[in-house]
Amino acid sequence: xxxxxxxxxxxxxxxxxxxxxxKEIGRVRLYVLHNDLHAEPFGLLEDVFVDENYRGSGxxxxxxxxxxxxxxxxxxxxxxxxVRNSKEEACSWYEKFGFKNYGVEFRLDLI
Length: 111
Hints:
By secondary structure, the protein is of the alpha+beta class. It has helices spanning 59-74, 88-96; strands at residues 12-20, 23-33, 42-50, 79-81. It is 23% helix and 29% strand. It is globular, with a radius of gyration of 16 Å.
């Protein structure tokens, strides 16, 4: 068997930030990725973060809503968000946006 490697350059990231008083108080990265199963890309949310002084202010909600809208605008067929099962509050928070607990994430730490 021969394995071939192809580097695709059609994937990218969009960083959405929340700024207050010239300071970043929150962020989310939307990775736009392609695979051979669909013509449309899919989105992956990563690095969803709100400064602890601003948590509960709606900043995180606005950031995720902006990422959802950006995913729709780009034409993504799905959007994935990952969270540890142990973070029940975060799991419930994502469900409020319409995310469903769809499966299990397997992880291999390389560093």
